[in-house]
Write a structure and sequence with these properties.
CATH superfamily of the largest domain in chain A: Type I PLP-dependent aspartate aminotransferase-like (Major domain)
Oligomer: homodimer
Radius of gyration of chain A: 21 Å
Number of domains of chain A: 2
Number of helices of chain A: 11
CATH class of the largest domain in chain A: Alpha Beta
Strand order of the largest sheet of chain A: 2-8-7-6-5-3-4
CATH architecture of the largest domain in chain A: 3-Layer(aba) Sandwich
Largest sheet of chain A: 7 strands, mixed
Helix content of chain A: 25-40%
Largest interface: A-B, 86 and 86 residues
Shape of chain A: globular
Structural class of chain A: alpha/beta
Mean pLDDT of chain A: 95
Strand content of chain A: 5-15%
Chain lengths: 363, 363
């Protein structure tokens, strides 16, 4: 590979991706542990039977029906009034992010994110030749106006705020988003991949779209919709931004099948919301339990918890794998991230963690 | 939109995409006119019923099973010996092309294509900040060594040869590909989106992969597999290139559904080949007929024909639409492109064209 004339900044790099190991309990990539229901799967089969005979034709390039459905979902989920013209779907929120950087980034542009955060932002920047900058969060992973001022001082073209943040789970206060909206002239991207897991009553940044044409909120169906395998992410933004994205999107980027599959899940929003409620409760229970065992836990509004701190997190991680539980080594040194699984999976994780760390329950 | 801080080179541009008009006969985007068969659609429903319950999990990031199936298909189709490690699939060949340019292109790199050719190459370059250069084909749309020497003289990093070429249908002689392989040190991409429609016995550039680690052949399932709606394209290349692409691909770029849907169609390769044979015959018949009517026609190895020349092609195009037939205004001034449809659609096109151009059959 080193013989190939690849871009110099890619030489020696490794592809992004969590290590995948075949173990009974996989709590490493923040997947929703509940698969689509038999009723949903039956609707999928029906949908593909309907579109199958017409797959020789290109998809609806503008994905109008799906965009209308996504707008309707967001309107119910976050009490807003968006229309199809506010929505832009793609193959996962990472394609949405790449399109945003192809549009607003580039060799003479820069993006600021807040460390520790999702490591793919740096890769999106590399893919689009955009300068990646980062500002440190407070020690407890929160952000406040002084952190935001540090970001603004870098004079970036794009700011990405992740809320809830990955891998820490931290929720950004809406007043901080409002502060940026008032003080930043560039493009503000709020990555809300895990938004549906935020505590009830917490507002979403989509509530700020109506008055802010340079705000983009990115969401995904991977998590709350149990649809990581379907690869559907979307942006909610002003109609102007949605139109502009079409200058850089690849034509027919979203297949007829993906559009149909996404629309089926959206019909089941209420059913899926029940699972989200259960996962939130499991998360809160696990957070309490971890604290009871004496671990540090970052307050989380997502479907995962970052906990620690370990002198040698790699050893803990490896021993958990030996006990059949796969979690993730990510984020600040010494911390580990565990996705919230089914009640049974979470129990298996607790049991394994106690064994690995030689603690006894209730000590 | 002009108020947004978008990249300067995008200001004033329009999104790529053929105009879509609801008419009875759509021969404008080189779709295969035959939809997937009821047997294939039944297998699709079965496949989605199987994967549906597991869609909460991320896809196989490396798409190993699909890559093995694609290799097997190419081996049979072009009498080669490729393995999964030679194949890289993505959401349409345009995502493959974008990934190749993210890997081998960039601000200090350039690509050469041969005009007239597929207009998306320039867009891929724009999306990846790669300099787009072009060299004119001969007047009859062929390429020869003097044309290739003009391309080499530009010292590009990437050369893209399209065979059969879109929109002209022209096939590149294998000796010209061999000439470039012997004389070009950069990355040579042969875009074979329409390869299955080439005359029987014409070799594919995949026959040159074994000895050329910097050669990439790009194919698609959109055309021969009647799968434009499924969005599956793929590269065949050296294992080194396939590994390197993974540095720039978005993680989990290809959904579980897309992987499964593609594998179903590959099971039906033989059935689909029958339709390709019919379309080839229809193309050759239509070419003869157009010539008999006194039109110029570019020799085509694809599922479309470029014909002309018209003083006002826009008028001919508009009048055809009024007669219920949608074709494409593309390629050199005065020429029009018509996709090969079903025998009935081709007859409708002929009837409409005669009416529009005031010719009588058999004049």
């Amino acid at each position: 590979m080193t013989q190939l004339p690849i871009r110099k900044d890619l030489v020696g790099k490794s592809p992004y991706g969590a290590p995948q190991i075949a173990v009974p309990v996989r709590l490493n990539t923040n997947e929703n542990p509940f698969g689509p229901s038999p009723e949903l799967v039956a609707e999928l089969a029906k949908a593909i039977s309907e579109i199958g005979p017409k797959l020789n034709r290109y998809p609806d390039r503008d994905a109008n029906a799906l965009r209308a459905d996504l707008a309707k979902y967001l309107n119910a989920e976050s009490q807003v009034s968006l229309a199809a013209e506010n929505i832009w779907p793609a193959n996962g929120s990472n394609e949405v992010m790449q399109q945003l950087l192809q549009l607003f980034g580039g060799p003479d542009k820069s993006l600021v994110a807040f460390d520790p955060t999702y490591s793919m932002y740096e890769d999106y920047c590399r893919n689009t030749f955009t300068k990646y900058l980062s500002v440190a969060r407070n020690e407890d992973f929160t952000i406040d106006k002084s952190v935001l001022d540090s970001a603004l001082a870098l004079q970036p073209d794009i700011i990405v705020l992740t809320s809830p943040n990955n891998p820490t789970g931290t929720i950004i206060d809406m007043s901080d988003i409002d502060y940026l909206l008032a003080n930043f002239a560039g493009v503000l991207v709020i990555d809300e991949a895990y938004a549906e897991f935020r505590p009830a009553g917490t507002p979403s940044a989509v509530s700020r779209l109506a008055k802010n044409p340079r705000l983009v909120v990115v969401r995904t169906m991977s998590k709350a919709f149990s649809y990581a395998g379907a690869r559907v992410g979307y942006a909610a933004a002003s109609p102007e931004i949605v139109q502009a994205i079409q200058l850089v999107r690849l034509p027919y980027h979203l297949s007829t099948v993906t559009q149909a599959v996404a629309r089926v899940a959206l019909q089941f929003s209420d059913e899926l919301q029940g699972q989200v409620t259960l996962l939130r409760r499991e998360r809160d229970d696990l957070e309490s339990w971890l604290k009871d065992q004496g671990f540090e836990v970052a307050p989380s509004g997502a479907n995962f918890l970052l906990f620690g701190a370990f002198g040698d997190r790699n050893e803990v991680w490896e021993q958990l794998v030996e006990h059949g539980v796969l979690i993730r080594q990510t984020g600040p040194s010494g911390w580990l991230r565990v996705s919230i699984g089914t009640p049974e999976e979470n129990q298996a994780f607790k049991t394994a963690l106690l064994q690995v760390t030689n603690r006894t329950n209730g000590k």
